[in-house]
């Protein structure tokens, strides 16, 4: 069983690193629920 | 961290319980990742947002942490994250977040 099964995920992405949507795609099949995803940027 | 996102973190922890929530970071530099990790685990170090003085103790990992990578389908990982994995110092990022997690997170995966 996935360690993430049943967990609620908060994805804090970064524009110059890994953006939120890329992480969302990765965790869609893990049994975890993405409760919110954001992509911040530092300028 | 964006003040609005701090509020969303507080709301999620209240709604689902801190023990059920995991925060994953996609930061590109270790210093920034450390501040994010500190903010969600120990509280906002700048005392500017809703997490100021609020120690949620949330478990926090960088997305490039091996524990997290092991949970993702390899083909999806390749498609979404492999490029940035080559460019960024993944070891340094994971270690920076791990340091804060060991110190402040009340829950672990």
Q: What spatial form of chain B do the alpha-carbon principal axes imply?
A: globular
Strand content range of chain A: 25-35%
**How widely separated are the two ends of chain A?**
40 Å
Rounded to the nearest angstrom, the distance between the terminal CA atoms of chain B is 23 Å
Low-confidence stretches of chain B: none
Strand order of the largest sheet of chain B: 1-2
Mean pLDDT of chain B: 97
Q: Write down the secondary-structure element order of chain A.
A: EHE
Assess the beta-strand content of chain B as a share of residues: 5-15%
Report the strand count of chain B: 2
If you average the pLDDT of chain A, what whole number results? Answer: 93
Count of domains of chain A: 1
Low-confidence stretches of chain A: none
Strands across the major sheet of chain A, in which order?
1-2
Sketch the topology of chain B as an H/E string, one letter per element: HEHEHHHH
CA-based shape of chain A: elongated
Any overview of this molecule?
The complex is a heterodimer of chains A (43) and B (109). Chain A has one helix and two strands, in the order E-H-E. Chain A is of the alpha+beta class. Chain A has a two-stranded parallel ribbon. The model of chain A has no long low-confidence stretch (mean pLDDT 93). Chain B has 109 residues and is mainly alpha-helical. Chain B has one domain. Chain B contains six helices and two strands. In chain B, helix 2 packs parallel to helix 6. The model of chain B has no long low-confidence stretch (mean pLDDT 97). The interface between A and B is medium-sized, with 32 and 36 residues. Strand 1 of chain A pairs parallel with strand 1 of chain B.
């Amino acid at each position: 069983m996935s360690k993430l099964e049943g967990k609620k995920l908060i994805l804090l992405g970064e524009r110059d690193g890994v953006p939120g949507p890329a992480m969302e795609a990765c965790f869609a099949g893990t049994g975890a629920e993405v409760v919110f995803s954001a992509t911040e940027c530092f300028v | 961290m964006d003040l609005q996102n701090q509020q969303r973190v507080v709301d999620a922890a209240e709604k689902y319980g801190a023990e059920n929530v995991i925060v994953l970071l996609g930061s590109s530099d270790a210093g920034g990742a450390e501040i994010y990790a500190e903010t969600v685990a120990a509280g906002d170090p700048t005392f500017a947002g809703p997490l100021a003085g609020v120690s949620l103790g949330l478990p926090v990992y960088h997305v490039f942490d091996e524990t997290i990578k092991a949970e993702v389908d390899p083909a999806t990982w390749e498609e979404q994250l492999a490029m940035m994995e080559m460019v960024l110092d993944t070891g340094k990022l994971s270690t920076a977040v791990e340091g804060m997690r060991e110190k402040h997170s009340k829950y672990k995966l």
